[in-house]
Amino acid sequence: MEDVGVETTGLRRRVGPGETSEPRPSPATADAPSPPASPASVASELPSFWKSPLQYLFGPNPPPELLAQVLLDDMKKEYGALCPAFEPISFRDAANLAKNTGKFLFVYLHSEVHDDTPRFCKSALCTDEMVAFCLEHDNMVLWAGSVLQSEGYSVSLTLGAASFPFMSLLISTPRGLNVVEKIQGAVTKEQLTARLANAILRNQHHITASRAQEQFRTEAQILREEQDREYQASLEADRLKAEEDDRRRADEARQAAEEAARLEAERAAEEAQRLQKEREHHARAATMEAKRAALAHGPTARGKDTCLIRFQLHNGTRLERLFFAADTFQVVRDFVDVSLFEKELPIVNYELATNFPRKAWGPDDVSSTLLDAGLAPQALLYVQDLDS
């Protein structure tokens, strides 16, 4: 198994039997590609059907994906549709694809200027047998590159391509890409498929180990991602719980503040009502005191000019007072007001009425005298609450 070590590409070369690890100068042969002096010199070697449209669209360095697709299309036009399904991607992407999927990487370096290329493509590479072999051995990623392009030329140097046609089978290891088979020259389709089959058989355990390692890494990555998701979910749950606790505390604080404000408003309203009632009581007490003082000048004994009035309240309470017959109902109401105030009976709006015959004197009938009302010398009046 060969192992080419080039740091920039990740390829390593294992020394085969009979070889030494010392670098050996490659003999100058007509098969070895000449290094392109510049992008312009590489472009000058391109066939015209490649060079003109690609340089017009992309300049001197078209993207490797486009070059890979153009090479595949041109090979199908030139040698028939039975070409292996080369990936239209860059070499680096092909190597990564082989690594990530645990497959071999089959590399074909195409030299448009080599004499053996047309015969090899028609009789070996682009044949039913090779296509069937690739379909049967689906553990290979297929990549082709032109040595007249910078990427293909760089890969040819890395793989040590000394003659053409050139093919190589590689595997991915933790240290990089290893060459497990190198096929050079115009081999037959039988030789090509046989050497590839033998190389695959010899190195299948490497692929199996690589797949196991990749599966282990994938499972470890999945586990880490799952743990990270669980950790993030836990953080999110903690964050949501903290937000919910903050909202709950804020709601409780708001409700407590609202309740305190409501109680304070009620207390203030009750205090204002109490003060208002107190003021009203003081004012009413002062009024009652004035009325009581005026009533002190009433008659002290019954006579022809007096009138005895008995009052009956709704709760059965009875009152009695001797008035002058010429006293108005205002004097009578003053007596009733003072009596109700002293007994703490909440009656303010009332009328005075006889039972039979039915007569009533309300708050507006204050100017009539007892004599005019026909109540002298005595009468029974019912105090009727107009607000009840």
Automatic annotation (TrEMBL):
<dbReference type="GO" id="GO:0036503">
    <property type="term" value="P:ERAD pathway"/>
</dbReference>
<feature type="domain" description="UBX">
    <location>
        <begin position="302"/>
        <end position="383"/>
    </location>
</feature>
<dbReference type="InterPro" id="IPR006577">
    <property type="entry name" value="UAS"/>
</dbReference>
<dbReference type="InterPro" id="IPR001012">
    <property type="entry name" value="UBX_dom"/>
</dbReference>
<feature type="region of interest" description="Disordered">
    <location>
        <begin position="1"/>
        <end position="42"/>
    </location>
</feature>
<dbReference type="InterPro" id="IPR036249">
    <property type="entry name" value="Thioredoxin-like_sf"/>
</dbReference>
<dbReference type="Pfam" id="PF00789">
    <property type="entry name" value="UBX"/>
</dbReference>
<dbReference type="GO" id="GO:0043130">
    <property type="term" value="F:ubiquitin binding"/>
</dbReference>
<feature type="region of interest" description="Disordered">
    <location>
        <begin position="234"/>
        <end position="258"/>
    </location>
</feature>
<keyword id="KW-0175">Coiled coil</keyword>
<protein>
    <recommendedName>
        <fullName>UBX domain-containing protein</fullName>
    </recommendedName>
</protein>
<dbReference type="InterPro" id="IPR050730">
    <property type="entry name" value="UBX_domain-protein"/>
</dbReference>
<dbReference type="GO" id="GO:0005783">
    <property type="term" value="C:endoplasmic reticulum"/>
</dbReference>
<dbReference type="InterPro" id="IPR029071">
    <property type="entry name" value="Ubiquitin-like_domsf"/>
</dbReference>
